[in-house]
Amino acid sequence: MPRLCAFCGCNNRVGCGLSFFAFPKDSTRRRKWLLNLMRADLSPDMTREESDRAGYVVCEQHFRPKDINSKGRRKRLAPEAVPILLHTIKEEQRDLEMPSTDVHAPVPLQDTPPYEQVVAMFNKLLAEKDEKIKDLKSSLQRERARMRLMKFRMNSKIRELKRKLEQQQNSSDDQGDQLTAASDCLPQAAKEFFDKQIAMAKVRKHGQRYDKKQKDMAIQLYKQSPSCYSELQKMFQLPSSTTLRRHQVVSQEASPSEEEDREPLGWPASQKDTPADPERGEEEKLADVAGWVVQKVAQDPEVSACTKCESLLVETNDTEHNYHTRMEKDAVSAVKKSTTSARLLHPSEAFKECISKCDSVIQKIPPNAMAPKKLKAYLRASGAFSELHRIHPAHSKAIERVAVNKYVMCRVVAELKETAQNRKRTHEKKSAACQELNVSTLEVNQD
Known about the structure:
Layout: E1 20-22, H1 27-36, H2 48-54, E2 57-59, E3 68-69, E4 76-77, H3 115-185, H4 188-201, H5 212-224, H6 226-235, H7 241-254, H8 258-262, H9 269-273, H10 282-296, H11 301-307, H12 320-336, H13 347-364, H14 372-382, H15 386-391, H16 393-446
Antiparallel strand pairs: 1-2, 3-4
Helix pairs in contact: 5-6, 5-7, 10-16, 12-13, 13-16, 14-16
Region (Disordered): 243-285
GO molecular function: DNA-binding transcription factor activity; sequence-specific DNA binding; zinc ion binding
Family: Belongs to the THAP1 family.
């Protein structure tokens, strides 16, 4: 069956002396061909297989001469060739019938729309394309304007950041020059101290390491005033009290001496300057130590952490008797202002009774048998504060803290006694060993 040209209005058949070209395999080119054929019955999405089965071809009269390559045996189309309406069909040629000897059966003609309808459809497609092109151009102009505005803003921001960076660099250089000039005016020791502080600030807290010189200086500061040393720790990178104690123990083991054995960290200056008296007994020495503990126990961070009180109330050099007397006077003045004081026990008697009960309770407890926190609950359960608590609750709590402090002092004194006894036993063993060695030496010499 001879095939006709698929272009709208063209009746050229295969075998009339013209070259015919099949639809391209590329989907983009094939879509352009189908749109330019001006056939409403042909879908632009038709595949190559469907066009081959239907026998759709386009004659050479719908291509430009430059799009056709005639050098070879067969004519070939250029890669960009697209069919267009080139030739005009005369009115009288439409009615001619071409006899054909090759056709032995009736050939059904394809239904094609009228020419005017095809032209109107083509004009509609062109109008739609023009409208799309206008929309794309307007959106492109808006996008370009937005990009220009964004570029201007980004350049302005970059210039502002560069200006700020330059100012910061100049300020940093000025501060560095000032710091260098100030460090040159400092003494060598102060300069080394601040250099080490700067180096410590760059290291995390648990990665800080102090040399022996720094630890020795910190120990001297701590001995002068533990509270002042705590304030200095807030401003500078200084070793903790635990590190100082560990360093002192290591130093004592490395170079033991009698003076270092007598002087633990924070030992009072009066004890340090007092010469050793061989006539004084061990109990008198422990009594001096206990008195010092009563005065300085509030400054000991370990005791403070153990009792968990805001203060240990032993912050002055007052004796226990004067402290109790002052508390008794405060209780008397507070009770006199109370409207129910006439019906209660006399405050001085209640105060003395409370103190005696606390002392009796504490004496029954071994020094290391109970933690201070449990001691408070034990004293409350014993009813030692019941009468005084009704008169003035604040004073009963104060006496409770005093009782805990006394118990803590007893614990410290007991530990000191145990240490002294251990040292005494060690000294006796060493003396006995020396005597045995001397006896053995004499026997060897006599032999």
